[in-house]
Amino acid sequence: MALTGIQILKMLPKTNCGECKFPTCLAFAMALAAGKAELDACPHVSPEARAELSDASAPPIRQLAIGTGDYEVRIGGETVMFRHEKTFFNKPGLAILITDVMDDAEAEKRFAKLSLYQYERVGLTLRPELLALKDTGHKDRFLDLVKKACGTPYGIILMSYDAATMKAALDIAKERRPLMYAATKENYEEFGNMAKDYGAPLAVKGEDIEDAAALSGKLAGMGLKDLVIDTGQRSIREGLYDQISIRRAALLNKNKLLGFPTITFPCEMTDDPMKEVLVAASFVAKYAGIIVMSDFEGETLFPLLLQRLNIYTDPQRPMTTREGIYPVNNPDESSPVLVTCNFSLTYFIVSGEIENSRVPCWLCVMDTEGLSVMTAWAAGKFVGDLVGAFMKKCGIMEKVHHKRVIIPGYAAAILGDLEEELPGWEVLIGPREAAHLPAYLRTWKQ
Q1: Separation CA 193–CA 197 (nearest Å)
Q2: Spelled out in words, what is the top-level CATH class assigned to the domain 5-57?
Q3: How far apart are the first and last CA of the chain?
Q4: How many CB atoms lie within 10 A of CB 69?
Q5: What is the pTM of this model?
């Protein structure tokens, strides 16, 4: 039975040392209860408490990491079937497939695509993270690809069923914490021992969901915890069915044999690139930990990245931009001043339209707790006295020699109060829609 945060707190040392990266033991206990932290993060918990808390505090789906540094991919750790119940935590890693039969030009092109296809959106960098290197029997060529991958920052998936080849690859890539793919019923003992020796996460590949569960049980019996499941299904219907069944079994039925993240292969389910993207989109939604694609193209990868962002954004927390002054198009002391809210979508739409206008501007972003302009105004968080106080403290008055500010058209009702709060300032009402900003700004008279 799951323990509450208060029950967990009673078994913690209560030192509030912060070594777990949480400010207090209570905060750490609440995170443990919610499945957002692991007990190993606390260095001072007693052996008795650790034994009692380990099972109770662990997320029903094991969380593990692949890779290192900025491109480390965390998968698993999920606690709900549907994101509106709480949220999804660890977005699936997207991997591009590179095999040992590809020539140098093709391999180089695919290595380059991970750095080429990166997109800035709502203050985040959307990008794929993983290289899936596949051994088809050309050992030397495969190991050359592993060496090349180790010269990049990306996470690595080593795909080989041959123990000798896998060991040679691990000798090269062991510092990068690669995912070993895959242990089968023929080689699981050798692969399990290697995974323990190198401290690497290990994928298991079964012939179906029952076979994969049996393999994970054998490897768990060997002391392995960081496992990834592949049920071996390569049809769309069966693959999606297995993803849902594994999630249900782990969360609802507490089946520990299936309490691990999964890896899927849309690249092996179809030869049609567009259909492959649709398959990958299904696995983004339900419930893959890693998705291996045959190739990346901008027009197909970006929608997947955007879908992933939308699904793995906490639905209970507004996306916000930091309060402050944002210069757009290299403004000077005579440039227009605009003020808006800190809802991320509003900020990026407004700043994007200002960039398109090519008019240098100062964009003042006020903290409205992530609410849009109309909602913030209705909630009393974007009203004249508060906007005026923000203008005084943010420092914009030291950056311009004029006294004019443009407010959103949807907030026209705050004009009078804002003029009272900012004596001597002229408050201009901008357009209601951001798309009309370029034309409006071009009429600005210095």
Answers
A1: 6
A2: mainly alpha
A3: 68
A4: 9
A5: 0.76
Kindly give the interhelix angle for 163-173 and 139-150, rounded to the nearest 10 degrees: 20
Q: Across residues 290-314, what is the average pLDDT?
A: 94
Domain boundaries, the chain: 5-57, 64-311, 324-441
User: 64-311 has which CATH code?
Assistant: 3.20.20.20
Which of these, 285, 240, 328, 267, lies nearest to 134 by C-alpha position? Answer: 267
Q: Of 373, 416, 376, 424, nearest to 397 (Cα)?
A: 424
Of the CA atoms within 13 Å of residue 210, those in its CB half-sphere come to 0
pLDDT of the residue at 314: 77
Crossing angle, helix 47-57 and helix 25-33, to 10 degrees?
40
- Residue 1: pLDDT band (50, 70, 90) is very low
Across the range 82-94, mean pLDDT stands at 90
> Is residue 62 packed enough to be buried (19+ CB in 10 Å), middle (13-18) or exposed (0-12)?
buried
Q: Which CATH architecture has domain 324-441?
A: 3-Layer(aba) Sandwich (3.40)
Contacts of 252 (CB under 8 A, 6+ apart): 81
For residue 199, is it left (φ>0), alpha (ψ between -120 and 50) or beta?
Answer: left
- Residue 26: how many other CB atoms lie within 10 Å: 16
